[in-house]
Amino acid sequence: MFKGVVNKLIELDKTISTMESCTGGEVASMITNVDGAGEVLKFSAVTYSNEFKIKMGVNEDIIDKYTVYSAPTAREMSKKITDFTLSNYGVGITGRINRMDEFNLVGGSDSIIYISIYDRDKDVFYEKEVHAINGTRNKNKELIARNLESLLESML
User: Fold this and answer.
1) Contacts (Cβ under 8 Å, ≥6 apart) of 71
2) Contacts of 151 by beta carbon, 8 Å cutoff, 6+ apart
3) Side by side, which strands form the sheet with 112-119?
C-alpha cells in the first residue's frame, strides 16, 4: 500500500505529514514501508488523547463544540500538522473503531472514522468518512488506510 502515493509525491516534489488518532500510526507505518518514503514523509504524530491533539495545535474549542470524533476535529488535525511541519499535505484521522471511549462519552458514533487531508498549496481540504466494519481492529485500520490512500491518489 501507498507505493503509488509515495512515488507520485516524489515525482511532484511534495511532502506529507500525519496526525493520527484511532489508526495509531498505521498510515505512517504503511508509508514508511515504501522505498523513498524518507523523501516525502516529514513527520507523524499519534495523538490518542485530547491533551496531545491540543498540544499539537488543535483548537480546544473545536473539540468542545463538535467533539473529538468529528469532521471539524479531523480538519483541524490535518491543518495543524501541516502548519507544524510546513509539508504540502497534512493528514488528520480521528474516530472510534467500534468502541466506546470512556474519556469522550459525548458525541460521535462508535463506528465512524473521519479523514481529512489539507493541501497547503491550494488551501483546500479533502475529506471522507469511513464506517468501521465488524472485524478486528487491524482490519479496520487497513480499511481506513485504503480509503485514505484512495483519497490521496484521486487528489494528487
Assistant:
1) 114, 116, 127, 129
2) 115, 117, 126, 128
3) 41-46, 16-20, 89-95, 112-119, 124-131
Residue in the block written with cell 495543524: 80
Task: Work out whether the CA dihedral 2, 4, 6, 8 comes out positive or negative.
Answer: negative
What domains can be seen in the chain, in order of their start residue? 3-155 (3.90.950.20)
What distance in Å separates the CA atoms of residue 112 and residue 114, rounded to the nearest whole number? 7
**pLDDT tens, 67-89?**
898 999 999 999 999 999 999 99
Residue 136: phi and psi, rounded to 5, are: -70, 165
Which of 7, 15, 146 shows the shortest CA–CA distance to 87? 15
**Cα separation values, 64 from 38, 80, 98, 110, Å:** 36, 17, 22, 18
The residue count for the chain: 156
Beta bridge partners of 46: 20
Q: What is the pTM of this model?
A: 0.92
Strands 124-131 and 112-119: antiparallel
Residue-wise burial string across 19-47, b where 16 or more C-beta atoms lie within 10 A, e elsewhere: bbbbbebbbbbbbeebeebeebbbbbbbb
